[in-house]
Specification:
By secondary structure, the protein is α+β, with helices and mostly antiparallel strands. The protein is built from eleven helices and 14 strands. It has helices spanning about 15-25, 30-45, 80-90, 110-115, 115-140, 190-210, 220-230, 245-255, 295-300, 325-335, 350-360, and strands at about 50-55, 60-65, 100-105, 140-145, 145-155, 160-170, 170-175, 180, 235, 265-270, 270-280, 285-290, 310-315, 375-380. The chain has a five-stranded antiparallel beta sheet, with helices on both faces. Strands 2-1-14 form a three-stranded antiparallel beta sheet, with no helix packed on it. The longest helix is centred in the first third of the chain and has 24 residues, at about 115-140.
């Protein structure tokens, strides 16, 4: 697809894949990992990955069903994975209020994250987890549970590392003899969280800088740390969530979100990309931004997560090593029933799973809406293309 080249009726709505095809070659210093992610997105659900030829048993219509790339950065491959992941979290919910908190990296520290993303993101997770747990223990005498999710973008696709946390409103007492709840509408003091978060993140970055574990020059790094030490770190706490439905909705909204969805892209013409964004400074008003295609692709590439990096983490009493024991204790103390097994459908087919989670039959013929599609032939993938 060229720069704003005309497309047929099926491609009337521009997609990320179209824009990558038009401008990826213009990006200098593309890493192997970024190139692989871009290739996956461009190949997703196309003949490049192969698939199956399907025929309707009623009207006889034949249509190809191409394989998905399954890349976590792909806007076409998130919905079902998100639904399955959220469904699995039901067993971890307990009948307490949950709070949504956001921890943001100040702009002056961005060079640390651009130069050493894997290590800096890991330190960010550690600082956020230690901050919430320490402040909760100090103010409530309890250890909370939290699910932390890394995002690296803002609405303009700018580089803006921050972590969303879904946190239990309270936690197990330090001697684990009871459950201590927070106030109904207030969890922890934001100013205290901000101060502790600043101290822990700066200390961690300074330690790794001193040990030579970061590639940023030490003098430049220390200057950035000194400047950041004089700033207030932004920590935002949203109103509490009431009920498991709202908690699961929040989890689904944040855990599998990517930098930009195809739905936000509204135009791709003459080598320029227009997309919707929410103007946070004006009450979330919906506006449109237009960028040159190469700049749009360059911004998107900045948000490719390092290979094998885990961007959703469970901390506190939800940490993997202690979760089963601590949650069982919490339910006993809260007199809460054991949740239903989220995996009772071990023999459920992918069609049944899709129908249950999405509400649509994936094999219903899109032409006659009466018959069902059956595979009549395999479509091989093209050579030198990654398998899905």
């Amino acid at each position: 697809m060229g720069h704003g080249e005309a497309r047929g009726p099926r491609d009337a709505r521009p997609e990320l894949a179209h824009i990558l095809k038009g401008h990826l070659r213009e990006i200098p210093r593309l890493s192997n990992h970024q190139a692989r992610v871009a290739r996956d997105v461009m190949s997703c659900r196309t003949s490049a990955l192969g698939g199956r030829l399907q025929r309707c048993d009623h009207c006889g219509r034949e249509s190809p069903l191409y394989n998905s790339c399954r890349n976590r950065h792909c806007p076409k491959c998130q919905s079902l994975d998100q639904a399955l992941w959220v469904e699995a979290q039901v067993e971890d919910l307990i009948p307490v209020s949950y709070f949504h908190q956001v921890f943001t990296v100040p702009h002056g520290l961005i060079p640390f994250f651009r130069r050493d993303p894997s290590r800096a993101f890991a330190l960010l997770f550690e600082a956020v987890g230690k901050t919430v747990i320490e402040v909760c223990r100090q103010h409530l005498g309890a250890t909370p549970g939290l699910i932390a999710v890394l995002h690296t973008w803002n609405q303009h696709l700018g580089y803006h590392p921050h972590i969303h946390c879904i946190v239990t409103g309270g936690g197990l007492s330090l001697d684990e003899s009871g459950w201590i709840s927070s106030r109904p509408r207030f969890f922890l003091p934001v100013r205290k969280l901000s101060k502790v978060f600043r101290g822990k993140l700066l200390e961690a970055l300074d330690h790794h800088l001193t040990k030579g574990l970061l590639t940023l020059p030490k003098d430049a790094g220390r200057l950035l740390l000194r400047r950041a030490a004089t700033q207030d770190f932004v920590v935002y706490s949203k109103p509490p969530m009431t009920g498991p439905e709202q908690v699961l909705r929040y989890l689904g909204r944040y855990t599998h979100r990517i930098a930009i969805s195809n739905e936000r892209i509204v135009a791709y013409q003459n080598g320029r990309v227009s997309f919707h964004y929410k103007d946070r400074k004006h009450g979330g008003e919906r506006k449109t931004m237009t960028l040159p295609g190469s700049e749009f692709v360059n911004r998107w590439l900045r948000h490719v997560v390092p290979k094998r990096f885990v961007r959703v983490r469970h901390l506190g009493i939800l940490a993997n090593g202690v979760k089963s024991k601590r949650l069982a204790l919490a339910r006993t103390l809260l007199h809460a029933p054991i949740p239903p097994d989220p995996h009772p459908r071990s023999h459920e087919s992918w069609r049944e799973t899709y129908l249950r989670l999405v509400g649509k039959d994936p094999l219903l013929c899109p032409t006659c809406h009466i018959g069902h599609l059956a595979v009549v032939a395999e479509i091989p993938r093209l050579p030198h293309t990654r398998s899905p």
